[in-house]
Amino acid sequence: MMNREPSRAPDLAVVIMAGGAGTRFWPVSTEARPKQFLRLFGERSLIQLSYDRVASLVPPERILCLTFTNKAAAEMSERIRSMLAACAADDEDFARALEAFPASRVSTLDSFCAEVARSGCPRWGVAPDFAVDKAPDAQSLRALAIDFLLDRR
């Protein structure tokens, strides 16, 4: 159950890494039933247990949940919201967490890192309109680099 002590570190932020395709714990965990939503150790899912461990340290809006794909981030956001809604009817702490959930962050690791990098662009002298390489771009750059190296050997 949640630790109901007031926040002790308002400037602290917590990152919960939750992702994967469900292959490590297969057949228990699958793409449709990711491990973070399984109840492996009692009545609470792994992501609920992660939240329980940090709930007394930071308010919900200071918790960042990261995953690896946009699809997984959208699904995780909806599952967390649904879990909070299901618990909110019987528990005022969950009702407050549900109310605060729109301020929470569920994101991909790539987009969060790009946001951090963009926020520091003026300090580092980098243009804030940089682009994050995608796999096809990386393949094109690799081919260009190989051609460059072969031309100069």
What is the gist of this entry?
The protein has 153 residues and is mainly alpha-helical. Helix content is 45%, strand content 8%.
Structural summary, described in words:
The chain is mostly helical and 153 residues long. 45% of the residues lie in helices and 8% in strands. The chain is built from 6 helices and 3 strands, in the order βαβααβααα. The protein has a 3-stranded parallel sheet with strand order 1-2-3. The termini are far apart.
Distance between the termini: 65 Å
What is the radius of gyration?
20 Å
Shape: extended
**Largest sheet: spatial strand order:** 1-2-3
Give helix and strand order, one letter per element, not per position: EHEHHEHHH
Total number of beta strands: 3
Q: Which assembly state applies to the chains in this document?
A: single chain
Q: Mean of the pLDDT scores?
A: 77
Write the layout of secondary structure elements.
Blueprint (H helix, E strand, L loop, with lengths): L13 E4 L28 H9 L8 E5 L2 H19 L3 H9 L4 E4 H11 L1 H4 L10 H17 L2
